[in-house]
Write a structure and sequence with these properties.
Elements lengths: L1 H12 E3 L4 E11 L2 E5 L2 E5 L3 E8 L7 E6 L4 E6 L4 E6 L4 E5 L10 E6 L2
Length: 116
């Protein structure tokens, strides 16, 4: 079972979309006590309008987890069973941390914004 999770985590870790408007769905899961968003890394092009749908599927407590990308002003709490979406324009290039602002020791990731 662990190998299957690792396979899917690696397979889904990086998404690269080519369109001007990009939409992703990320899901918070728990495996062997570790909590993380899948996919954890997103790659978009500068100038793209980005929509990230977040679903908290973690069954253990606490039932809320944060999703923050400071450089784009994103900081939301996602409760289990209450999906949320955020839309923003990727107006700067670089590698930006995605993290849980409620529980900083887990649920990390990154947003890579590349030139067109």
């Amino acid at each position: 079972m662990n190998k299957l999770w690792v396979f899917f985590a690696v397979l889904l870790t990086v998404n690269l979309a080519n369109a001007a408007d990009m939409e992703f769905t990320v899901v918070a899961i728990e495996s062997e006590g570790a909590k993380f968003w899948i996919p954890g890394s997103l790659i978009v092009k500068k100038g793209s309008k980005v929509k990230i749908n977040r679903v908290n599927a973690i069954k253990s407590e606490p039932n809320t987890h944060g999703y923050a990308i400071d450089e784009f002003g994103i900081k939301q709490v996602i409760a289990r069973g209450e999906p949320k979406a955020v839309t923003f324009t990727a107006d700067k290039t670089g590698l930006f941390a995605i993290y849980c602002h409620q529980h900083p020791k887990h649920i990390g990731g990154q947003l890579l914004v590349i030139d067109k």
